[in-house]
Design goal:
2 domains; alpha/beta; seven-stranded mixed beta sheet; two-stranded parallel sheet
Length: 343
């Protein structure tokens, strides 16, 4: 159960070889978050460039009011591990995640904090580099493309409409923090975090932020390999990190959707439709449990009994859509009831 404490906000900043940016970042934090009820937690993730010493010197200064906490990890373990460590050592009612490399502006972080504390119904805000009408500098096409593709896949898998899953600027209420159990240690932490928030039925709001891209020469650490790994993490969090009932629903709906696909095309085309509908069924099984999924299947089966040839195909599609509508209505009706695991 959430307990009240004296800290209104914990800002968690993972740091790995960011000596170039720490001084300016510290000045930004003093400008926007210089209050006694705020703690700023720097998690040094095994830096070797002098970042540790710089942070220790900054902590010794006497010109700031916020609580300065420095945590040193002996070896570089990844951004995800640093964030997990920071969260475990945080006390604030709200937790804000901020990168140390100045690609994202602390002024935007302050605006997000002001917004979330003024509306108690909002528990989670993600920054978005794509919604913003603010200043932006970005000339890394591949990273930008992968980020948008990942957000699209995430939206399909989790029935969301997010524009930027990977943005490093996020703020969460303590009630959200207490519901999630992060496990990924690298840049996959963004996907892990977003998926767990959605699974726990929290709504993610988005806020447009400025973005100032930095190059590899300036210390950019994410690579194309991380981009490829992110696709794996999307599959992992959606199709493997589920309850037994959800996994059963995925298998069940994949089979009956393959049955739907069998009504399309002929020969090789028919086989292709079966495969496509099997994949669509796996996504459908994520969102509908056994009873609601069975309702969809029954409507499809009834539709398959009508007419012949193309008429059967049309009937199957129409009855599938009608079954989807009914199942969605029932799912909403039983949401948060003791029967929710069946719908």
């Amino acid at each position: 159960m959430h307990q009240e404490n004296s800290k209104s906000l914990s800002i968690i900043i993972p740091v790995y070889n960011e000596i170039t940016f720490l001084g300016k970042l510290f000045e930004q934090l003093k400008l926007y978050f210089n209050f006694k009820n705020i703690e700023i937690i720097f998690v040094d993730d095994g830096s070797t460039d002098g970042s540790t010493e710089t942070l220790r010197e900054l902590k010794k200064k006497d010109d700031y009011n916020f609580f300065f906490k420095l945590i040193k990890l002996d070896i570089n373990s990844g951004k995800g591990k640093a964030i997990q460590t920071g969260i475990k050592n945080s006390e604030g009612e709200y937790v804000l995640l901020q990168d140390a490399d100045l690609e994202l502006d602390a002024k935007d972080a302050k605006e997000m904090f002001d917004m979330i504390i003024s509306n108690k119904d909002i528990k989670c805000i993600f920054g978005s580099r794509y919604l913003s009408g603010k200043l932006k500098k970005n000339n890394y096409f591949f990273n930008n493309l992968v980020g948008k593709i990942n957000s699209l896949i995430f939206n399909i898998f989790f029935s969301q409409s997010l524009s930027d899953v990977h943005c490093g600027l996020k703020i969460l209420h303590r009630s959200v923090i207490e519901k999630i159990n992060l496990s990924l240690n690298d840049f996959g932490i963004e996907i892990d975090l977003a998926s767990q928030i959605v699974r726990n039925n929290f709504f993610i709001y988005e806020f447009g932020v400025s973005y100032f891209f930095r190059s590899k020469a300036q210390g950019k650490k994410i690579t194309w390999i991380d981009g490829l790994k992110s696709f794996y993490y999307l599959i992992k969090v959606r199709f493997f990190d589920n309850s037994a009932s959800t996994n059963l629903s995925i298998i069940y709906s994949s089979i009956y959707m393959a049955f739907v696909g069998s009504h399309f095309g002929m020969g090789l085309g028919n086989t292709l439709f079966i495969i496509i509908f099997f994949i669509l069924g796996s996504i459908l099984g994520i969102h509908f449990k056994i009873i609601s999924s069975t309702i969809i299947f029954l409507f499809i089966f009834v539709g398959s009994l009508f007419s012949k040839g193309n008429g059967t195909t049309l009937a199957v599609i129409l009855f599938f859509l009608f079954g989807l509508f009914v199942a969605q209505k029932l799912k909403r009706h039983f949401l948060n009831s003791k029967f929710t695991n069946y719908f």
